[in-house]
Amino acid sequence: MKISTLLRRLLPVAALALAAASAHAAYPEQPIRMIVAYAPGGGTDMTARLIAPYIAKYLGNSASIIVVNRPGAGGGIGFAELSHAPADGYTIGFINTPNVLTIPIERKANYHWTQYDLLGNVIDDPGNFSVHNDTPVKNLAELVAYAKANPGKVTYGTTGIGSDDHLAAMLFERAAGVTLTHVPFKGASEVHQGVVGKQIFMASMNVGEAMQYEKGGSPMHNLGQMSASRTTLAPGLPTFKEQGYDIVMASLRGIAAPKGLPPAVREQLVKAVEKAAADPEFQAKATASFAPLRYLGPAKYEAELREAETGFKQLWKDMPWGENVAK
Hints:
Elements: H1 3-25, E1 32-36, H2 43-59, E2 65-69, H3 76-84, E3 91-96, H4 99-106, E4 116-132, H5 140-149, E5 155-158, H6 164-176, E6 181-184, H7 188-196, E7 202-206, H8 207-215, E8 220-225, E9 250-258, H9 263-278, H10 280-288, E10 293-296, H11 298-318
Parallel strand pairs: 1-2, 1-3, 5-6, 5-7
Antiparallel strand pairs: 3-9, 4-7, 4-8, 4-9, 4-10
Helix pairs in contact: 2-9, 4-11
């Protein structure tokens, strides 16, 4: 075969290979959507807006990330949209435990956590109860006494059925022998407004969120944190266990993408999330905003989700939370 003929045959193949390499190297070529399954102003939304510029920074290529709120159904709307988006690297989002695990346990859902490519966990925020400063309740003992003396008057808001906030309150009801009335909202910011406006008696929300609102002058105070021991986030706030109730509950907030990302794109995103989470400037901003950081790489993140799912399946058998919502 003549050299000229061979070159004519090889050139198109080489051109295609170069074009593919060039296209891949260009990622990202367009803005990336970051889905938040809760309303603006909550802890997940705040974290997303803090970390997005840093992920974009480490992706390079003048990347930009746009935060998109898809609240509703305890996070189910946003989680489903994320799982069904094209697996091209242009849609990522936060997934929150336990909601991302408990919704498919309690009812039919068109997503499951295994339908995501995990990119890394960022936040681990313990639960907490908060009440308006005008209430006569300053700790858990006083909450129990008030609930027993005033049946039906302790209403509490959460980010939805099966959320960490909801499950924690149910565990507390069982442990304390009291009955509370659940009022689900679309996000922590709405729960906060419910307490401030006195539409509900109490907020079941994460410590980081509550402290952020407190920093902003909110007329609320916290009753206890649901961590195994006092956190550096709130060293002066007693744990539930210290107050006689062995309840540990927290919300992991990690970043994921639809399953099936191109391997090189997935690797690029995983590295960008890891570097963003470790960035000193981001960490300083997160600390100032009371966001309790806990980075987990994809493998460790998957292991925690798998273990937690097993625990919540058992909890559903013992205490099906869908039946504990006020009609």
